[in-house]
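STRUCTURE:
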């Protein structure tokens, strides 16, 4: 663990306050947005990114990078500030690296304006480094479960002896609203069942939502619920305690059986003299006077706007930047050797990343007419046909005879691929038993 010196504490504090003040200034400039949670969660996101995340700002599409999902999408300026300060580079829709910043300071200054890379909520493929679009509460948490399953699937499908290509972790940060939504509970249950130990959720337990105190509508014991789901639950009593936060992330990294929930007690609008701990810090600008007073509390020049003090960019580059580059470069070298030994798998991986289908993927899919006999015929599709070797992204489908451009789902088709792999994630789980009662051949209906 790095030795904590006065100088390192100072620069860490400076970086955290830079995130906070950028978020406050962006929301104020737009006269709209959510400053309170970025201010409170800045030390949490900073500790995670700076000390743990394996993410190369120069190559935000490197396949084995750790994923960070901001499920509390309303706190988007937290993520935009991080992307800016870490110097994340832009990637175009063709997945080519452009070398330009993903979030220039100008775009942060035009938060919530037309064409800015900083729209109200994070948008996937609009701003490089955003791993998934978020905003509807709970959905980022749920999506992160899919990502963690995908990571396990990729490891099982692509890893070979001597080639651990995939071992990435998925982090998601959400608040009370994300926890209230049913979708996150359902996804958390599945994550516990599948023992997704590569998944870490951070719960911003600030007791405030849009209308006021959570006591109005939310009094369940979240920790106990997650223990019931089979999660590893840990708690950090103060969002500003970066050492405890780092310890919680270490505990996550050491866990190999369960997903981890880190419950972080925080104060929304931290440091704002009149708005901290109130719903007034949730979804409206702090106001010029409150901003000045807050900056004074941070020891910040109160008139300065969008200030990035000397040393901040460099510190991010030395932390997340250097670690990300090292791990990414090592991975690329490994992948080059893998490509020489397993060219077909390497090709599949690159195609998947570019969303390309394999050559001739539609060469022998059946074509049906709409008459009754043919509809019955669909049901009689022989299993042999559906079980032929398929690339992982292939799904049994048929073409509509009248409109060959249109594909029809084959209602009675069975997806025979990948399901056993999914169940292998949890080795002691009883796989679903198929129609024939043979547990070695679980299947799902398409
Ligand atoms: C499904 C859904 N319902 C409602 C909203 C509107 N909304 C945005 S933020 C918010 C309150 C969220 O509270 P919390 O997660 O505690 O965030 P905090 O106030 O702590 O930042 C609501 C209701 C939404 N984005 N998604
Ligand atoms: Mg809250």
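SEQUENCE:
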């Amino acid at each position: 663990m790095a030795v904590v010196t006065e100088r390192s504490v100072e620069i860490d504090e400076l970086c955290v306050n830079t995130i906070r003040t950028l978020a406050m200034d962006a929301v104020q400039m737009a006269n709209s947005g959510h400053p309170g949670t970025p201010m409170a969660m800045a030390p949490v996101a900073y500790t995670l990114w700076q000390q743990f995340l394996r993410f190369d700002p120069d190559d935000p599409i490197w396949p084995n990078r750790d994923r960070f999902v901001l499920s509390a999408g309303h706190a988007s300026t937290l993520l935009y500030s991080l992307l800016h300060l870490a110097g994340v580079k832009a990637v175009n829709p063709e997945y080519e690296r452009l070398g330009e910043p993903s979030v220039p300071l100008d775009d942060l200054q035009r938060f919530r304006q037309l064409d800015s890379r900083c729209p109200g909520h994070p948008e996937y493929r609009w701003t490089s480094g955003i791993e998934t679009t978020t905003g509807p509460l709970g959905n980022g948490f749920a999506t992160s479960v899919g990502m963690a399953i995908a990571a396990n699937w990729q490891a099982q499908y692509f890893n070979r002896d001597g080639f651990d290509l995939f071992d990435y972790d998925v982090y998601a940060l959400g608040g009370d609203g994300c926890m209230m939504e049913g979708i996150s509970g359902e996804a958390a249950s599945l994550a516990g069942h599948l023992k997704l130990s590569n998944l870490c959720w951070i719960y911003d337990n600030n007791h405030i939502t849009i209308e006021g105190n959570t006591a109005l509508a939310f009094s369940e014991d979240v920790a106990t619920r997650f223990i019931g789901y089979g999660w590893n639950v840990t708690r950090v009593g103060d969002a500003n305690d970066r050492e405890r936060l780092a310890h919680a992330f270490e505990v996550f990294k050491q866990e190999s059986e369960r997903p981890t929930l880190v419950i972080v007690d925080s104060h929304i609008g931290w440091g704002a003299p009149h708005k901290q701990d109130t719903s007034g810090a949730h979804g409206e600008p702090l106001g010029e006077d409150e901003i000045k007073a807050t900056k004074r509390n941070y020891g910040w020049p109160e008139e300065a706007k969008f200030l990035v003090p000397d040393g901040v960019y460099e510190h991010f580059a030395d932390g997340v930047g250097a670690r990300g580059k090292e791990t990414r470069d090592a991975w690329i070298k490994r992948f080059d050797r893998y490509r020489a030994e397993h060219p077909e798998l390497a090709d599949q991986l690159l195609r998947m990343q570019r969303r390309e289908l394999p050559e001739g993927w539609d060469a022998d899919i059946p074509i049906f007419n709409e008459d009754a006999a043919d509809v019955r015929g669909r049901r009689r599709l022989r299993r042999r046909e559906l079980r032929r070797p398929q690339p992982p992204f292939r799904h049994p489908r048929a073409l509509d005879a009248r409109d060959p451009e249109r594909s029809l789902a084959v209602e009675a088709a069975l997806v025979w691929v990948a399901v056993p792999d999914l169940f292998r994630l949890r080795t002691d789980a009883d796989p679903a038993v198929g129609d024939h009662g043979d547990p070695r051949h679980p299947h799902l209906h398409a």
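REMARK: The two ends are 49 Å apart (CA to CA).
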